[in-house]
Structures are given as C-alpha cells and as structure tokens.
Amino acid sequence: MIEGTIDPKVLSGMAKGRLQKKQDELEKALVGVMGRHQRMLLETQLGHIDFLDQQIEALSQEIARRMDPFQKALDQLDTIPGLGRRASEQILAETGIDMSRFPTAAHFASWAKGLPWQQ
Predict the structure, then answer these.
(1) What is the mean pLDDT of residues 87-103?
(2) For the whole model, what pTM was predicted?
(3) Are 12 and 26 within 8 A, CB to CB?
C-alpha cells in the first residue's frame, strides 16, 4: 500500500497465516481511498514499529547477556508451571539469587503476589 498498490485482490493475496482463509473479507476491508497523505502516515508508523522491534531485540540481547550468570537459577524457576522466562528474569532482577532476605517461603510468596505479572 505504501508503494501505491491499491487493488484489494492483490493486497488480500499477500495475506499470511490464518488470514489466508479470510481473503474475501480482506478484499472487502481493503476497498477505500489511500492517498499520498495516508501512505506517508502508514510508512511513518511502520518505520516506527520497525525501530521499536530493533530496540526490543537489542534490549532482549542485553537482558540475556546480563542473565547469563544466573542460568542455573533461571532453569530452576523454569520448572514452575505457568512461570515463563520473562517472569523468571523479573524475579531474579528483583530478588537476586540470595533468598535469605525472606524469612520463609510464605514471605516470598506474599512478595510475589504483588508483582504485575501475577495480577
């Protein structure tokens, strides 16, 4: 669309994944007016999304690098059902690996209930 393709049939033919099954609906949705202004805005928005994707990738790599010394603890946290990699990283970032600051497991559980990923 940014490059000037406006034919709904051509555009719907570019669908990927599950959208391929909805080409008729896509064709109907893609009928409309897309002028230079809309193309410019769309190009700007897509460029911003690409930039954000690059930043997320760079930050993910930095987090992985910083978490490398804690791989054993991450692997142990990964055995907890429902606790994913990101939540495990958040726990370690907040608490470190020294759990002595929590007198009991109940104290730790009480702390964990207040985390954003838990709610």
Answers:
(1) 88
(2) 0.64
(3) yes
